[in-house]
Fold this protein.
Amino acid sequence: MEYIDLRSDTVTKPTPEMREAMATAEVGDDVYMDDPTVNELQEKSAEALGKDDALFVPSGTMGNLLALLVYCQRGDEIIVGDKSHIYLNEAGGSSALDGIHPRPIKNQSDGTLLLGDIREAIQSEDVHHTITRLICLENTQNSCGGVPLSLEYMQAVGKIARENNLSFHVDGARIFNAATALKISAKELVAPADSAMFCLSKGLVAPVGSMLVGAGKFIQRARHLRKMLGGGMRQAGVLAAAGLISLEKMTTRLEQDHIRAKKLSENLKQIHGLVLDADSPSTNMVYFNLADEVKLSVNQIADEMKKRGVLVDWAGPRRFRLVTHYWIDDAGVDKTAQALKDVMI
Ligand code: TLP
């Protein structure tokens, strides 16, 4: 059965055009920096995000980890959202591998960290304290509803970072979704930050890979650390070839996913027992809770949906997240809403 898969935008398979480009890609040994397709992807990514240089990495998790490892020494502190992917969903990599100390701050429902909370969390010089090195933001903020953080907010955080001599990294796994929703370029949106990571293998549909962008020296060090972690890939041009299509063609079509997420959300609002997040969705994620009176568990609902050809994933004991992407068309949205209606009766 061909499923309608709304579990994540990570499930996107490459398009026929990507597969063709992958099959015919010019390749070389990327550890020697000899792969022309990887080099082109890195150049174009750096340009698109307005930074000096870029590095192709196997995953978003590795991209974020490398940034943290470059900025911090053992025992240094990073300011992160308490609902951020770096804090919750990256297996504590930076603590495990480099003794980095996270200082989680409450993510507000709009995805932001209060500026006052950030300022307050920055450690003063004192023998008792850790050394604050870095502020991390996530844009879009996934678990707060896939919300985009505005340019004004990014600028305000950038200002705090500069005033306090801190670095500023953006987990921009879905930065092009944010830029699309805000109707500005991704370059403008990450301009206040020193570095950013964005994923090719989510809404941008490539099968593998993420990009880390930043200053020349930062990327040079990240390349060294990528090798240390075993992420130095050889003929990676077969993957980068798909990434080039992501950058050129997929970054400009995300509005369609956002429109479909809205349509899905409007349909789900009509279904008794589903409580949609307010002001949602602003990008490609539809979050909703089960009303108290619903007796079915999230697992039972997911199982029933699967029987009807729709894959959904829960995001909490009474919560779901449905994600639209390239392979979800209008018919898929309608079928999903109908299937949920049938299951919730
Ligand atoms: N997110 C995945 C899951 O890990 C939750 C998803 O389905 O949304 N930053 C953000 C904001 C992310 O959402 C993700 C993946 C990553 C980083 C990590 O990317 P990968 O999966 O490439 O390591």
Observations:
- The mean pLDDT is 97.
- Residues 108 and 114 are 7 Å apart (CA to CA).
- Residues 8, 10, 59-61, 85, 89, 138, 142, 171, 173, 199, 210 surround TLP (CB under 6 Å).
